Amino acid sequence: MKKIIYLCIIALFASCSDDYVDILPKGKTIPESTDDLAMLLNYTNDINSLDVNSSVQADDVTIPEFMLPFSANATIKAYTWQDYLYTDAEQDADWVACYLSISRANFVLQNLDTYTPGNEFDVDYTKGRALFVRANYYFYLVNGYGKHYNAATAETDLAVPLLLEMDINASQARSTVQEVYSQVIEDLETAIPLLKDSAPHRTWASKAAAYGLLGRVYLYQEKYVLAQEYSKKALDLYSTLTDYNTFSYVSGTNSSKGVIGYESNALSNEENLFVVESGNYRTELFYSEGLINTFDKAKDLRFWYFASDYDQTDAYLDGYFMATTGGQEPFSGINVPEVYLNYCEALMKQSSDDRTQALTYLNMLRKNRYDSATYADFASTDDSTVLAEIMLERRRELRFSSNRWFDMKRLGLTASRTVDGETFTITGSSNNYVWAIPLNVMALNELLVQNERGL
Question: Could you give the domains of the chain?
Answer without folding.
Answer: 1-195+412-455 (1.25.40.390), 210-396 (1.25.40.390)
